[in-house]
Write a structure and sequence with these properties.
Blueprint (H helix, E strand, L loop, with lengths): L4 H11 L3 H8 L4 H8 L10 H11 L3 H9 L14 H25 L6 H27 L5
Helix pairs in contact: 1-5, 2-3, 6-7
């Protein structure tokens, strides 16, 4: 699922256990101020880049990063250190899921014989997510390759 940066910021704060008040305490910000900064209707208060970074680091929730990338027609791919072989199964299932989501978007879009610009954007988003999952799987394979 793709979000704009603003919706992702609101969702990140709202979904945090205890909401803005609890997350504000973790990132050294008044909870009420944080709530205003992610409010979709508050045009005067906004998160700064350092504040958004601090929230993502504290929560491990990167929807804001992906939302910003979506807003700018880009994708993000996590570059992580490769761990044990059990991750391979997760990456394979992630890639398969994203492929299914991509095919679902294509199928839904062509059913009526008219692909709208919004439908094409959704296809593009699903394709980007599928490519990101495939790249993650490829990275894991490259990191576990034989030394021969």
């Amino acid at each position: 699922m793709s979000y704009s940066f603003e919706v992702a910021a609101l969702s990140t704060v709202s979904d945090y256990d205890g909401g803005a008040k609890a997350l504000g305490a973790v990132v050294d910000m008044n909870g009420s101020v944080l709530s205003h900064k992610v409010c979709l209707t508050d045009k005067a208060n906004h998160l700064t880049v350092p504040q958004a970074r601090k929230i993502m680091q504290a929560t491990g929730d990167y929807r804001m990063l992906h939302g910003l990338a979506t807003d700018l027609d880009h994708i993000c791919i996590q570059v992580s250190s490769v761990g044990n072989g059990n991750r391979m199964f997760r990456y394979i299932s992630d890639a398969a899921k994203e492929f299914g989501d991509f095919l679902g978007a294509v199928t839904a879009s062509v059913e009526d014989g008219d692909v709208t610009p919004n439908e094409l954007r959704q296809i593009d988003r699903e394709l980007a997510e599928m490519i990101a999952a495939a790249n993650q799987l490829r990275s894991l394979c490259a990191a576990t390759k034989s030394k021969r």
